[in-house]
Fold these 2 entries.
Entry 1:
Amino acid sequence: MILQKCWLILFSTSIIFGQTGTEIAKMVDERKTPKDMSNVTKMVLKNSKGKTRTNLMVSKSMDGNKKQIIWFLEPKDDKGVAFLKIEYDNKDDEMRMWLPAFKKIRRISSKKKGDAFMGSDLSYEDMSSRDLQQNNYKRLDDKIINDKDCFVLQVTPTKEAESSYSKHISWIDKSSLLAVKEESFDKRGALKKKKEFSYNKIKEYYVMERVFVEDIQKNHTTEVIFEKIQVDMGVKANIFQEKNLKRLPAID
Amino acid sequence: MSRIAFKYSSHPLRRWFIQQSLDFPWRTIIIALLATLFLGSGVRFFLIDDDMMKILPKNLDSRIAWDAIQEEFGSTEVIFIAFGEKGKSIFIPDALAALWDLNEELEDNHEVEELTSITTATRMDNVDGFMEIEDLQPFRNLSEEEVGEIQAYLDKNPTLKKRFVSQDSEYFMVTVQPYSSEGLNQFRDAVVSIADPILSKYEIYYGGQAYVTGTMPELIRDDVIGLARIGILIMVIILLLNLRSISGVAMVLMVIGLSLFAMIGFMGWVYHLTGSDRFLFTLANTSMPIILLTIANSDGVHVVSKFFKEMRKKDETRLAVASTMDSLLIPIFLTSITTIAAFATMTLSPLEPLFGYGIVIGAGIAWAWLLSSFMLPAVISLKKWNKGSKAITEPSIFEKIIDKLGKVVLTHPKYVFSSGAIFVIIGLSGLSKVIVDVNMRNFFEPGSEIRDTMDFMDEKMTGTVDIRVRIEGDMKDPQTLSSMRILQEKMEENEKVITSFSVANIVEQMHRTVMDDKPEFETVPSNREKVNNLFTMYSMSGDPDDFSSLIDYDYKVGLISAFSKVMTTKEIFAFVESMNEQVKANMNPNLIVDFTGMIVILRDLVIMIVRSSALSIIFSLIVIGIIASIFFKRILWGILAVIPLTSAVIINFGFMGYFGIELSHITAILSSIIIGVGVDFSIHYIAQFRRLSRTIDKNKLSRAVVEDVGYPIILDAGSNMGLGALLFSVFLPIQYIGGLMVFAMLATSIGTLTVLSALAELLKNRLVERNS
């Protein structure tokens, strides 16, 4: 769900020629996104030995995922655990967890962008929007991927971005301006992750319905599937409060 | 001279052998060389690898548990790098910067799977209600104050501190885990080449099983080359003294060299074709080339010296060669076959390398026999010998010594026999003193790099002997975690166990952090839900990979790792026994608990060495007894053949007991070598006794046999002094083998001339054979 901010792209359908990398990135960034969103997220992790872990969560978000609350449904052990995240522009993000067994809410650190989310191959950085000012965009030769004519952008984070990556290569479908594939490289310049995205159209938005990430170095994969997606349902701001962490919502 | 003109031998088989050498010398030489070249070409597959784990059979419980741990948690054979300066605190910004650089460089190396040090560790803090998981060393360059914070955190977490810092805070330690337990020599070289320049300002110590295993191939290679040089030098001296002919010496050396080449190549081929670790060249195999060198030398020297003797009588090369081979083909074959049989019993050993040792040296001995029986006489026959040379016309020093020695033995047989018997009695009383010990530390001399490092690790760090406990069960169950902690505490009650850690420690630490950092909550939570909440919370703010060396992906298998100082065999047995009792008494019976790690491996090795030695002695004596009975057509001869060998084995083990020489997987081969090499003396004696008994009066028989057989026996014993080269090994057990073998050769040769001759004399009425 949070992922949808970065790659969920809906823009004009006209085919664009001759743009620079920055211009393409700007068009992608300026796409229209839902005011709020809710879904059931299934996350399947698979390690190098083929062992898997599956998590099922209910997520609600608004303001382009700047506010998000997640309740864990599965595995059974995790049922009732909840997570609240509120992003701020001028201070550290706030992250809180409800630990039902301790009957305590605990704040957790949000300092390390490169930390994995829930043991997945997605880091908090992967799930956050990319600031146009904190990255340099270079257009590479266009490529055809899965029968889709794509722009290829090399995205290089600036020092201010404090990224855990040295660069990304993104393939953006020319017709929809949606990222269909991305490769991310670690600080040493070695390929770290390969990501693939697929989308579904709900109302006037293209909404991500699946993301597959492979950590090349760890030989570990994560597949995230978004189900029961609802957009612009009028989620209220007061839902993103500590007290709501303890209240597991009903699933339709 | 025509082929038909020669009657090389009365026996058709011997005649055929001799014909190949004398009638078709070039063909024989070329075939022998080509065959040796083909066999030796396997040298490209020859591999030196001394991994303690590969010594154990794969179906052994501790090996199964070990393999499971390697599969689930990655290689547990690691390299420790400790650096610092004696007398100075290591908590300084420069040292942490060096540590940072070292980690960066090592992380870049594709052979490194994981690093554990202050730089890679995380800290867990409760800051104003925040659960913070951060890098313990966040940056390369730190201020004095920041270094102080790291030190304070480690002081608060002594279990963590023990893994990263020496007890006196003078050294930092980095643990480097390889991707694979294969090719540890390259891994070791890579780690050293990275660490040495970065840490050049500090004292550096490398240790750990991966380092020792990685260093061993080079040490073994250097040792084998060095020993072979010394061995050959000793051989050349003995040969020159005995033969006094450079051509003769060169011919014997040719047999030795080709046999060695063929044996090493054979080992390579078998390893290549089977892929079995049994055919890796390990520390236990270090003595193998010298032993083959000795045996091949013995075969060759018999042929050449007998040829010189025959030349004195026959005055014609081909006739002398024919006569030599006619009388030596059977004894050389018999001594070879019995030696092979003795070594073949090593295949019954439960220790993997000893199986390979038995097979490979057997092949080498067989090749030496073939070369001595076909190629050597062919080469001798092609040379134009100077019939007036001293080598041919005069008896050698050996022959003169033997003449005098024979007289002493025969003049004072009772004294000689009594001396032998006293030695055996002394040996018997020393048997109970034999200590079984397989600690690698004791394989190296004090002052050697590996021994010093092991001592350093014992004294300053966590020790290098690891103990691993694999626990299969619900790792989120507080009962499981609590019982793991109790087991750890029990382990640490042993003063030699320095530290232990498991996921239970992490759970305790997380619990304390969540409960506002109150020390009283540094416990395993009371219910499963709480434990699960802690893991989930950690996964939201830390990397669950941090636990990958402690718990498996499914939270179904946990690992307790502990490190101890070097323990004696007795201490190891007591420790493992007490741990097993602890598991039975206090752990949930539904949990599957397997003890392994080097400490358990060492215990199992000890048990197997004892079993291996006993099996080897019993079976080699039985097999040799049977072979001798068959060849000499009497069970009594079979029994008599093994008596001097039994005496020599008793004396050998007795002396090991008296001199404190440990029985290890290296010295366990001693009994096979003694029996395999020593049996030659009995064979020579019995063959001569039977031959002379047909023509000489039985009252003069023993004297005649001793006079006649003394030369080949003492010649054999003299040739076997090449085993003394092993005294120059860098490995202590190999040195011991060298010393004991020299002694054993004297014991068996004299034993044969005394004990066997006395028994034969007593039983002569039953043993004498008359020509019908």
Entry 2:
Amino acid sequence: MTELMPFLKSLLSVPGLSGYETPAMRLIEDAWKPLVNEMRLSRLGSLEALKKGTAAEPRPSILVATHMDAIGMMVTSIKDGFLFMTMVGGVDARVLPGTPVTVHAGASGEDLPGVVVQPPARLLPASIGEGPVPLDQLMVDVGLLMKDVAAKVRVGDLVSYATEPQEFAGDIIVGHSLDNRASVAALTVALNELQGKTHAWDVWAVATAQEEVTLGGAITSAFGIHPDLAVAVDVTFAKGPGANDWQTHGLGKGASIGFGPNIHPYLFKQFKELAEKLEIPHEVDVMPRMSGTDAYGMQIAAEGIPTIVISIPLRYMHTPVEMVAVKDIQRAGRLLAEFITRLEPDFINKITWDE
Amino acid sequence: MAETTPKIGNSQIKLLEKLCNAIGVSGDEGEVRKIVLEEVKPHADDVKVDALGNVLVTRSGSSKDRVRVMLDAHMDEVGFMIVGDDGDGIFRFELVGGLDVRQLVGKPVVVGKNKVPGVIGARPIHLTTTEERQRKIPLDQLKIDVGPGAAGKVKVGDRATFGSTFKRVGPSIMSKAIDDRIGVATLIELLKFAPPNVDLCLSFAVQEEIGLRGAKVAAHYFNPDMAIALDSTPANDLPTHDGEENIFYNTKLGAGPAIYTFDAGTLNDPRLIRFLAQVGDEARIPYQFRQPGGGGTDAGSIHRSRAGIPTVSVSVPHRYTHTAYSLSRLDDWKHTLALLHTALTKITPALLAEERR
């Protein structure tokens, strides 16, 4: 049994930028080891864990993908001891000035604490004025002397958010990389719930790599595992300052069940009915086009896979202060586990188009 | 034998850390005041908290021709005040002091005396347009969010500031409140090593960031012969965007204490400027002159108090003023303490009898 809060906080305290997921992967590997039968790493770095079902061979399988990579920055040049950066994944440069970061120094192998700095106005192009300073004008200061920076840091070194995770009153967790470590935690909750329960289907729990940039981990793991069904668990926009339209959902008001072209309507119906039956708080997350999740890649893996998206509402996505209600993580995990235990060996034959 | 010169060691850095992590937004300096009172009492002849909340400390010397020297450092820091409750743990806030709203987005904060943690978030990048990202997020769109579970723990009127904590990194320190807790910590060390030739008047001042208000009444109370305002000033010593030489650096990290000549509030006393530079030269303590320009210190209030008080400002330089993490070099702090202590030991009535030139 993995304790949720300490596990989640540990996940929010390590880097794991897209393509460099190893620090996060190690923690997930440790947490999942007692909960699954086998584990392996995909060629692109996704952690693939199998919990075997009880149905006769050839046994159907469900893949649950939670991406473990996080957005961040990469060093593009070094000048007078200051580092310039580009983004890895979608970063709004307006959240960066004053943000603590860790520079993963390639030449010395050290993790250097630093801060993103906005140069004084007189040193910037006059056209910027009082406006936001674009990423290519921001710098990182690691507090070291110029010669030491030159000896330790290389172009291409990663820069990750270092804002520390915090618990707020009322079971709220705040930190960077809750997108999508919150979902990794939800999948871990599901694996915990499945202990001691029987399930006919094989369950592939996959912590996918590179979602934030190319969806590369999910696309390739879905091909390699070739499951009968695939679920992407990701975060969705929670209502809050600056976010109140149809795309947003109540923080702490339950997991969201995706609906749209990325989602097989039969799976949507099954999940929705199950959530209602079990009285698990939930909302419907309508996704008129792409879902912006691993489901987008998995749906068209091999000859195509029926896919669904389960989401956890999160405020301030892609900032260092993402916010999630822990009970939504638990609800998403429980919904997944309940769905999995109810999968009959011939479920796949019942999937119909409701025309 | 007891030490006769102050040093910056682990216990001084620890005190600075405690001072920096305390919250003391202008007008609400109580947490800093409490630390200051504990530290100064064993070494002072007289300690008073005045009508504004300044801590005013006197320690008399023992020589015959003593000079009455006021040393000032401000206890307050910039921050926020909660001004509106939007419900569900989301609060509107106003700025206290000179803050750049572009430094607030995506930052943890702490609110009120119970230090309720909160964040200032932003609309997810996914929901913004390219055009929107070309504009800064205005203050009225920024909120302090303490989460729905803490909605009842914050109220209108509470002060808040950045939730960042003190860090020591290589030769540097980082904190939200180096400005001016580093001055406060320096004054405490100078008090412990007060030389006999001066009557030391220490002003741990309130409300510097909103108009130099505490120092004004402190100077009146002390009625000193001269004053030194000890503050922390920006070091804008970063590369320029076009690779041209940076001639607007204000001060540079690693170049020692910054002696002021002229800022927006004060023409510093030329005798005191010259004196400090001489002390630095003779004692081989590095120092620099702050570039004349805007900004200012409590000297702006002090030198115009009563019938006029000869005043000079000295600052420990820091980069990234009024942000979650200002950054200073420990060596600059050590040299500032050394310069001021050495200067204090050399002050005589003759200094103020010199011609202004």
